[in-house]
Amino acid sequence: MVHLTVDLIAKSRKHFKKKRGLSFPEYLKTLTHLHFSNKNIEDIGDLSMCTNLTVLYLYDNNITYIGNLSFASNLMHLYMQNNSITHIDNLHNLQNLSKLYLGGNRIAVVEGLEQLHQLKELHVENQRLTPGEKLLFDPRTLDSLAESLCVLNINNNNIDDIRDLAVLKELQHFSAADNKLCSIEELEDVFSHWPQLFLMDLSGNPVCKKPKYRDRLITVCTSLEALDGREINDLTREFLINWKASREAKKKKNNKHDVWITAASFTYGMFLQHILK
């Protein structure tokens, strides 16, 4: 079993070269970036001497539990994708965390992020879930991220409903490819709450096969610059927005005409009843 500890850092040739001229405890205090990806690490030990750590790379390991990071109040980026983590735990002290990478784990519920008010990017794609299971979101976590989260990646997680995500009004980049989204009306409603969205990927969802799918979403997301990897030019956007406005105006006019016809028919019917008495 491999533990990530200061002893493992001391044995690292990369770090050994850098610590010349400093005592090892002094060197640990200067560390800002720690690279231990793909090292068969199974858990995180005591790294509390690394008080200035800002970036931690632990992807492609065998970690099952997030622990012993409460010391890392300066941590800004945490890379823990492709491990075997089942729960998002023990991150409440990471007040400066802005990017969190947890893709390729075994997480069933996005939770435990209520204290991370600086979080701007959350990557939870490709969770290894049991058959029939889908990734869920704790409403408390979503509410706490509403004012900060700009990038969300939830690709390939069997998701069929994103209405709970509407609260994330600061989103600029949303990726939900290869899920099970099928209601274009639901998407239109959610995206109407995201005025700053400029990049979106929904490729591989059933909704992509719906008539006018691309046109309808472009008219709702007026800031969108690319959809499913295809750029949206200003001319196309302007044409579609004008087309939608014209169609809605015509529909409104027809509704008023129908109301007038109905009222006139009613009045004429009452008149006939009066003269026939």
Could you explain the architecture of this structure?
InterPro entries: Leu-rich_rpt, LRR_dom_sf, SDS22/Internalin_LRR. The protein is of the alpha/beta class and 277 residues long. Helix content is 30%, strand content 14%. The chain is built from seven helices and 14 strands. The protein has helices spanning 6-11, 13-18, 24-30, 139-145, 184-191, 213-220, 234-275; strands at residues 2-4, 33-35, 41-44, 55-57, 77-79, 99-101, 109-110, 121-123, 136-137, 151-153, 173-175, 199-201, 226-227, 230-231. Strands 2-4-5-6-8-10-11-12-13-14 form a ten-stranded mixed β-sheet, with no helix packed on it. It has a two-stranded parallel sheet with strand order 1-3. A two-stranded parallel ribbon has the order 7-9. It is elongated, with a radius of gyration of 27 Å.
Strand content: 5-15%
- What's the name of the CATH homologous superfamily? Ribonuclease Inhibitor
What is the CATH T-level topology?
Answer: Leucine-rich repeat, LRR (right-handed beta-alpha superhelix)
Low-confidence stretches: none
How would a crystallographer describe the biggest sheet? 10 strands, mixed
Based on CA inertia axes, which overall geometry fits? elongated
Q: How many H/I helical runs?
A: 7
Average of per-residue pLDDT values: 89
Topology of helices and strands:
Elements: E1 2-4, H1 6-11, H2 13-18, H3 24-30, E2 33-35, E3 41-44, E4 55-57, E5 77-79, E6 99-101, E7 109-110, E8 121-123, E9 136-137, H4 139-145, E10 151-153, E11 173-175, H5 184-191, E12 199-201, H6 213-220, E13 226-227, E14 230-231, H7 234-275
Parallel strand pairs: 1-3, 2-4, 4-5, 5-6, 6-8, 7-9, 8-10, 10-11, 11-12, 12-13
Antiparallel strand pairs: 13-14
